[in-house]
Design brief:
This is Nitrogen fixation protein. It comes from Streptomyces polygonati. This protein has one domain. The longest helix has 19 residues. It is about 30% helix and about 20% strand. The protein is globular, with a radius of gyration of 16 Å. The chain has a four-stranded antiparallel beta sheet with strand order 1-4-2-3. A two-stranded antiparallel ribbon has the order 5-6. The chain contains seven helices and six strands. It binds iron/sulfur cluster (SF4). The site of iron/sulfur cluster has 11 residues, from helix 4 and helix 5.
Length: about 160
């Protein structure tokens, strides 16, 4: 894949302030999973309605152009979705959301339904104390590092749950 397709594809973890940015979905519920809008809404139309002091990406997910200057790009590939794919999918999450971006989504074109299974749980704004989210957002982290972190975390949890 040597060509730059950034003009044709959109990032489903985009920034709200890009001129073309649209609202992809609303983060809702205790876990902040995304519920997707049936139709794109220009980000500029809603940003003014978000109360001051609330980071827009805490309540909404945005889509914007996939650009070659992105820190997550390697050649024509998105390394962010490669790291997202390292996170196991819970059985109950194996559903492909109805989203308006699919026809031009970079993650879909690169990784298909495996990206869609995980997409609703992705948070563009990660919490500083969420180590996994921080690692996932780090352009220098590899999928192997995420897999190792998840395995170590699972072992720690098993140890903590074991009877003394
Ligand atoms: S659900 Fe799939 S097609 Fe839609 S934005 Fe997420 S990764 Fe892209």
């Amino acid at each position: 894949m040597g060509t730059d397709d950034s003009a044709l594809t959109w990032c489903p973890s985009g920034q709200p302030d890009a001129p073309e940015s649209v609202v992809l979905g609303v983060r809702s519920g205790a876990d902040g999973r995304v519920t997707y809008l049936a139709e794109p809404v220009p980000a500029a139309d809603v940003l003014g309605a978000i109360p001051e002091g609330i980071e827009p990406t805490r309540v909404l997910r945005f889509a914007s152009h996939c650009v070659s200057a992105c820190a997550h790009r390697r050649g024509n590939d998105c390394t962010l979705v490669q790291r997202v794919l390292a996170v196991p999918v819970r059985e109950e999450s194996r559903a492909v959301p109805r989203c308006h971006l699919r026809g031009s989504c970079k993650w879909w074109s690169q990784s298909g339904v495996d990206a869609c299974y995980r997409c609703p749980a992705v948070s563009t704004a990660h919490l500083a104390d969420d180590e996994l989210a921080t690692l996932m957002a780090d352009p220098t982290a590899t999928p192997e590092q995420l897999t190792a972190w998840i395995a170590a975390d699972a072992a720690d949890r098993a140890d903590a749950a074991a009877p003394a």
